[in-house]
Amino acid sequence: MPLHRPDCDDNAQVVVEKKLKEPDRYRVLLHNDDYTSMDFVVGVLCGIFHKTLEQATSIMLAVHQHGIGQCGVYTREVAEARVNQVHFKARKAGFPLRCTMEKA
User: Which PANTHER family match (predicted)?
Assistant: First the structure.
């Protein structure tokens, strides 16, 4: 038997608010090495990370000058996929380019 509360309208709808948690974000990073060409890195940044030529060149120079550069910030699944794509493309081309991800 349903519980009837006299202070409630029988036709009232109950709205339950749930706070949705944003998914964790991960930074995808490229690491400098002495073998991977700058042109290849720019190509990876344009092709896999959808950067413009100017953005890709800037990130490539950061990798070259500082040893590391951020390609973007993504959800875990997207970050993992991008890291794997970079490694696959680099190995196929014969480069040891290293790409990692870390929690943002």
Answer: ATP-DEPENDENT CLP PROTEASE ADAPTER PROTEIN CLPS, ATP-DEPENDENT CLP PROTEASE ADAPTER PROTEIN CLPS1, CHLOROPLASTIC
What are the pLDDT digits (tens) for 74-90?
999 999 999 999 999 99
Q: Quote the CA–CA distance of 81 and 97 in Å, as a whole number.
A: 16
Give the right CATH number for 35-103 from 3.90.1720.10, 3.30.1390.10, 3.40.630.30, 2.30.110.10. 3.30.1390.10
CA distance 72 to 83: 11
- pTM (predicted TM-score): 0.80
Domain extents for the chain? 35-103
The tally of CA atoms less than 13 A away on the side-chain side of residue 95 is 23
Distance CA 41, CA 23 (A): 28
Residues 6+ apart with CB under 8 A from 93: 40
Do residues 86 and 30 make contact, with C-beta atoms less than 8 angstroms apart?
yes
